[in-house]
Amino acid sequence: MSNLPSDDAGDLDWLLFRQDGVISRRQALCVMSESHLRHLVVSGRWSLPHRGVYVAHNGQLTHAQRIWIGSLAAGSGRSAPLAGVTALQSCGLRGYESGLVHVYVPMRKRSRSVPSYVIVHRTEQLVRADLHHGPPPRTLPCRAVIDAAQWAASDDRARAIIAASFQQRLVDGDGMRRALARLARLRRRCLITRTIDDAASGSDSIAEQDFLRLCRTGGLPTPTRQTVMVDAAGRRRYRDAYFEKWRVHVEIDGGHHTDVREWWLDMRRQNEMGIAGDRVLRFPAWAIRDDAARVTAQVRAALVAAGWRP
């Protein structure tokens, strides 16, 4: 974003500041003449990256400027709200960066040319409660998560986006359920609802959600997720899944377990649980999805050995 304008700056300077140096023709003609606008482009001071949208320099575009260009182009000179993953990135979501820009426009709006990287979604289901007016304008995180999940290329991608949004504290269960209730039509509604419930109850990693689903399909008891234990040194430790009645603990190892220091810390935690009398099973995250039958069999055997009767 440009440097903060001085106190005596005019409307144009403040508009360019708010919009990362991007302005539409409609906006520009409210503060200058058409001949002045044409002169800025012809002289090379401003560039025209897309029809009807200008940038107040002639250098390389930033990611933020590409977003503003897409928003203003889709909105025919007014800013269209960012949606889905694009809105989540503006809210701080990490790990899902993309060169695409998702925006919302009203269903009744006529089609207009947009840059190739812009995906326009038409809707009649966008209410004030789901909007943040910017800058830039965008859907609020809960609605953005739901949209990103329903537009995702696969079910796994949809679940991962929801899980990441909970992990990174962008959303909570109550807010997600309210946003969900406002949508009469929704692709993947059952999957999104189930994933929200899982994440809100503690399984906020995709592997933990996979394990919870494995328990359901395998006829196993439902474990408690992300419970807290206090080790011998008084430190708080989190358990991925715990069948408390039978004292069977399941640890799901993600990519961070390739780090030797993290691996040793986990070994110490496992030893402490074993000393206390718990049965501890450990599985890599990939096995929960790709070798579900073997994982189910081992968890079942541990529960039966601990006294569970199916």
Helix and strand topology:
Layout: H1 11-18, E1 22-24, H2 25-28, H3 34-42, E2 47-50, E3 53-55, H4 63-74, H5 84-91, E4 101-106, E5 118-123, E6 131-132, E7 138-139, H6 141-151, H7 155-167, H8 173-181, H9 189-200, H10 206-217, E8 224-230, E9 236-243, E10 248-253, H11 260-275, E11 279-284, H12 285-290, H13 292-305
Helix pairs in contact: 5-6, 6-7, 6-8, 7-9, 8-9
3D architecture notes:
The protein has 13 helices and eleven strands. The strands form four sheets. It has a four-stranded mixed sheet, with helices on both faces. The protein has a three-stranded antiparallel sheet with strand order 1-3-2. Strands 4-5 form a two-stranded parallel sheet. Helix content is 43%, strand content 17%. Helix 11 links the parallel strand 10 and strand 11 (279-284). The protein has 310 residues and is α+β, with helices and mostly antiparallel strands.
- N-to-C span: 61 Å
Order of helices and strands: HEHHEEHHEEEEHHHHHEEEHEHH
Largest sheet descriptor: 4 strands, mixed
Radius of gyration: 25 Å
Instruction: Give me the side-by-side strand order of the main sheet.
Output: 8-9-10-11
Helix proportion: 40-55%
Number of strands: 11
Helical segment tally? 13
Structural class: alpha+beta
